[in-house]
Amino acid sequence: MQIKSPKYIYDFFNGVIQGENVKHYKKLYKEIDFIYKTRDNQLSPDTVMYEVYSFNEGGSNILLWGLTVIYPITINGECNMTRGHFHEDREEPEIYFGCSGEGLLLYLDSQGKIFAEKVFKGSLHYIHGNYAHRLVNTGDDTLRVGACWREAAGHDYKSIDEKPFPNRVYKKDGKIDIA
Ligand code: PA5
Ligand code: NI
């Protein structure tokens, strides 16, 4: 029997996935400045707000793995966060798991009902297909969150642009404030 090295290396501490077929993108402030309540003119438009790694085994009916790395930046007091999305297929769930840092995972249903779970190293989150999901970095360090979902899920950002998450997360004097 041949023993092979794993195809992918998941580095929880440095926040990268390495291997063949790994996709990686950086989300810059200028690409998502509209998601925050206010603009911060002190923040360079090219600031990297978060990075996403994912890998795709290929074939049909596949599972994707990903890692999201969210930097501890505040925008006039508002905590940095992902854009947030529903899945195009509202039947498709996703699993998130905290790798490092501290944050909140916001869940929003199509009726506008919202709740959140704390995210930390070792936390595991089952996101049912009917919930939009957004990660917020509430800590002083980088937040790293792993994810697993089916490619068939797709990303629907339009619904969130049209009907945004009703709450925002701020940090004032080290304390979290949800407004
Ligand atoms: O598939 C997911 O839910 C994640 O990989 C997200 O795409 C990632 O966290 C980035 O968030 P968003 O796609 O909302 O910008
Ligand atoms: Ni998703």
Automatic annotation (TrEMBL):
It comes from the Bacteria. Gene3D superfamilies: Jelly Rolls. It catalyses: alpha-D-glucose 6-phosphate = beta-D-fructose 6-phosphate. Its EC number is 5.3.1.9. Residues 46-163 form the Glucose-6-phosphate isomerase prokaryote domain. It is an enzyme of class 5 (isomerase). This is glucose-6-phosphate isomerase. It comes from Geosporobacter ferrireducens.
